[in-house]
Amino acid sequence: GPHSDDIEIGCGGTLLHLLGQLPEASVHWVVFSAEGERVQEAQRGVELFAGERASAFEVHAFRDGFFPDAFGEIKERFRDLQRSVDPDLVFTTWRGDLHQDHRLISELTTQTFRNHLILEYEIAKYDGDLGSPNVYVRLDEEEANRKVDNLLSAFASQHDKYWFTPETFRALMRVRGVECRSSSGYAE
């Protein structure tokens, strides 16, 4: 994920669902921008969403909003990652995301793991850049609620942001649930 909380916002419910279905699965978690309290929040996010299934946790301190300026350094971290892990499934931000950091991470993920299954996640924000997903993961109500509760628990520094609300997170899961006719009404 580009920033502390992006993975959890974008595909936290999907991770909860998959880890519940696949007892042998493990997660290699990478965050490219977290400093200070955001590092502890990222760690808390891993604990809440992957728990003991997190086989690795990497956090980097690339400057938020300036990833394109650090392209070479970030690409080197991807090359290191490619040498250390051979995943069955990779999650990354949506390639059409208007946030420059999100877009760069998506591009480098695709370049680095081109021989792997890659699923892109979306993050609701003021840019209004939500797309038309081609994969939906149906979430039961407990998974949707747990995602929201975990987000609010892990990322206290974001509570003052106008968009960081249970309603925002539930709304997007609800819209995606409608689109795929999820029996619970929720999906990512």
Characterization of this structure:
With 188 residues, the chain is α/β, with parallel strands linked by helices. Helices cover 45% and strands 13% of the residues. It has six helices and six strands, in the order H-E-H-E-H-E-H-E-E-H-H-E. The chain has helices at 6-21, 37-49, 71-84, 100-112, 141-154, 166-179, and strands spanning 27-31, 54-59, 89-93, 117-121, 138-139, 186-187. The strands form three sheets. Strands 1-2 form a two-stranded parallel ribbon. Strand 1, helix 2 and strand 2 form a beta-alpha-beta unit. Helix 5 (141-154) runs antiparallel to helix 6 (166-179). The longest helix has 16 residues, at 6-21. The model has no long low-confidence stretch (mean pLDDT 97).
Task: List the keywords.
alpha/beta; 6 strands; 13% strand; two-stranded parallel sheet; globular; 188 residues; 6 helices; 45% helix
